[in-house]
């Protein structure tokens, strides 16, 4: 990475961790040469909005099947305009090109700027990225944008569109389990969800460095607008890592831990990661559908549940404790009845 004023001190942090650990980097990163590239299941959401019941049922079935078999799928004809996606990406790039000192300035996007991993103790725990992880409740706060006035309007429009799309997908998944929509609808509002703007700078160290360390998402579901041309997203499929081929026309959806617990393991929250590129940067935007911290996550069939009931706040606290103690998230296994 060329040292310049807008890059975070990732190279410094990586070097410090490498010197401290004195271990082989490729072994740490579980490098797999010749990784298989896959195309995720592609769902055309045109059928979901169709007046034809057979088309609606067929589309819903595709969503649920992909959520059970892959935990990931792509969507086209999702209702979010290409023009809005382009405007949001343009503003995102402009934000990350700002000087590092400006991005870390107090108050910008609710003080949500972060980079790397401040709790990392070895290279395998470092994420070679920078990000703004913004609560939707702050997106309408004009004081959050500082000098980035043009970001405010497009970010509000983008968040609103993603919220509606996420809820439409969630309704399908809930209905498939035979649960009434009211059980879920009140849990996730614009005040409880998040957006994460990501930038993965070029990494001069090695193409085997994590842009984002292996993890599962801790929400109900995530909608990702990833880079249309620069790959890097990988997921665990049939006990091996596969690389996701970018599709410039699609958004990527993945199931989070909460839907896996709520569905009693019918829907799968799949481990995934991002790998860096040595030559070019990569951008993505993730929308996280989350409930309030007080919301209980109980199985839709509680008498058969493999998980005990827990609140989202309890889950988040346990994750933070595990990361601090072990350097990584443990997640749902902590809440299985058998444990």
Automatic annotation (TrEMBL):
Native species: Mikania micrantha
Keyword S-adenosyl-L-methionine: no
Family to which this protein belongs: Belongs to the iron/ascorbate-dependent oxidoreductase family. GA2OX subfamily.
Catalytic activity: gibberellin A1 + 2-oxoglutarate + O2 = gibberellin A8 + succinate + CO2
PANTHER family: 2-OXOGLUTARATE (2OG) AND FE(II)-DEPENDENT OXYGENASE SUPERFAMILY PROTEIN-RELATED (PTHR47990)
Residues of the Fe2OG dioxygenase domain: 189-291
GO biological process: gibberellin metabolic process
Keyword terms, alphabetized: Dioxygenase, Iron, Metal-binding, Oxidoreductase
EC number, as in UniProt: 1.14.11.13
InterPro entries given in the database record: DIOX_N (IPR026992), IPNS-like_FE2OG_OXY (IPR044861), IPNS-like_sf (IPR027443), Iron_ascorbate_oxido_reductase (IPR050231), Oxoglu/Fe-dep_dioxygenase_dom (IPR005123)
Any one Pfam family match given in the protein's UniProt record, by short name: 2OG-FeII_Oxy
Name this protein carries in UniProt: gibberellin 2beta-dioxygenase
Gene Ontology terms for molecular function: gibberellin 2-beta-dioxygenase activity; metal ion binding
Residue stretches in coiled coil: none
Keyword flag Repressor: no
């Amino acid at each position: 990475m060329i040292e310049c004023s807008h890059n975070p001190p990732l190279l410094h942090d990586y070097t410090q961790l490498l010197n401290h650990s004195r271990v082989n980097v490729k072994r740490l990163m579980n490098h797999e040469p010749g990784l298989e590239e896959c195309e995720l299941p592609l769902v055309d959401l045109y059928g979901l909005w169709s007046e034809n019941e057979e088309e609606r049922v067929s589309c819903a079935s595709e969503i649920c099947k992909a959520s059970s078999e892959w935990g990931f799928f792509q969507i086209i004809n999702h209702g979010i305009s290409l023009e809005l996606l382009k405007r949001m990406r343009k503003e995102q790039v402009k934000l990350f090109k700002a000087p590092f000192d400006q991005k870390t300035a107090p108050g910008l996007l609710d003080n949500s700027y972060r980079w790397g991993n401040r709790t990392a103790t070895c290279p395998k725990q470092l994420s070679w990225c920078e990000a703004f992880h913004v609560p939707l409740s702050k997106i309408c706060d004009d004081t959050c944008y500082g000098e980035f006035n043009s970001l405010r309007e497009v970010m509000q429009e983008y968040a609103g569109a993603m919220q509606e799309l996420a809820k439409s997908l969630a309704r399908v998944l809930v209905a498939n389990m035979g649960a009434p929509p009211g059980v879920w609808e009140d849990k996730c509002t614009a005040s409880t969800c998040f957006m994460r703007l990501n930038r993965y700078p070029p990494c001069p160290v090695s193409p085997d460095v994590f842009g984002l360390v292996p993890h599962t998402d801790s929400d109900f579901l995530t909608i990702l607008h990833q880079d249309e041309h620069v790959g890097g997203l990988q997921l665990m499929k049939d006990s091996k890592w596969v690389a996701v081929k970018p599709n410039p026309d699609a958004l990527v959806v993945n199931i989070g831990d909460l839907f896996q617990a709520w569905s009693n393991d019918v829907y799968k929250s799949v481990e995934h990661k991002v790998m860096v590129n040595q030559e070019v940067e990569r951008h993505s935007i993730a929308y996280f559908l989350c409930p309030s911290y007080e919301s209980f996550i109980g199985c839709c069939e509680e008498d058969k549940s493999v998980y005990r009931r827990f609140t989202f706040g309890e889950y988040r606290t346990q994750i933070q404790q595990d990361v601090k103690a072990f350097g990584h998230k443990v997640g749902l296994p902590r809440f299985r009845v058998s444990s």
